[in-house]
Design a protein that fits this description.
The structure is a single chain. The chain is mostly beta strands. The chain is built from four helices and ten strands. It has two domains: 132 residues, no CATH class; 41 residues, no CATH class. The strands form two sheets. Strands 2-1-6-7-8-9-10 form a seven-stranded mixed beta sheet, with helices on both faces. The longest helix has 9 residues. It is elongated, with a radius of gyration of 19 Å.
Length: 192
């Protein structure tokens, strides 16, 4: 399953894989959060390990340089990261678009969770479009995507790719020459 979708929501035409929740236009962030599967938080815990002494269970130790990230809803671990790692919550990705959708005329078109919660994204249509020869319409979008497993910095980029799964996310990010990327070891661009 290369699309690696856990849950997704969209407005307009169904994605190529026919997965996800179809929403009416101009839904509030809270509806997107629920329908795109982004209504949970990333929590953190210290890394602990148990030493083995001559075949017997030993004492529990803490590894202070690392922490475990896990889902608040399922308690499933997502990754082990350094103490410097700054978490970007799924809701923050959607809230990034609040002013753009309410004031600037952007419209959320897709959002979702991939790889068990390790990656998530939201995509808004900017209203810019062009028609190519043969009447093929190309829409302009603004993508915000991130991961919590070290595979992707928090990335905002204009794109013409309608992101609906891991495949299309990778295509959009591969062509992201004008992307703004914020590593998770820096203060998040989403915290204002």
């Amino acid at each position: 399953m290369t699309h690696q979708i856990e849950q997704t929501a969209y407005v307009g035409a169904a994605p190529w894989h026919s997965l996800g929740n179809n929403l009416p236009s101009k839904q509030p962030i809270e509806i997107w959060q629920r329908e795109a599967g982004m209504n949970w938080q990333i929590k953190e815990s210290p890394v602990h390990f148990q030493s083995d002494t001559a075949g017997h269970l030993g004492t529990i130790h803490t590894f202070p340089e690392q922490k475990v990230l896990y889902r608040s809803d399922t308690k499933v671990p997502l990754s082990v990261v350094s103490q410097r790692y700054q978490i970007v919550q799924p809701r923050e990705v959607l809230v990034f678009y609040r002013d753009l959708t309410e004031v600037s005329g952007y419209e959320l078109e897709t959002a979702g969770v991939l790889k068990g919660g390790r990656k998530f994204w939201a995509l808004a249509r900017t209203g810019q479009k062009t028609v190519l020869k043969g009447n093929d319409q190309v829409n302009g979008y603004l993508l915000l995507a991130t991961s919590c497993d070290g595979t992707l910095a928090t990335t905002a980029t204009p794109t013409t790719v309608r992101v609906v799964c891991n495949n299309t996310l990778n295509v959009a990010l591969d062509g992201a020459a004008r992307a703004i990327k914020v590593p998770h070891t820096h203060v998040s661009i989403l915290k204002w």
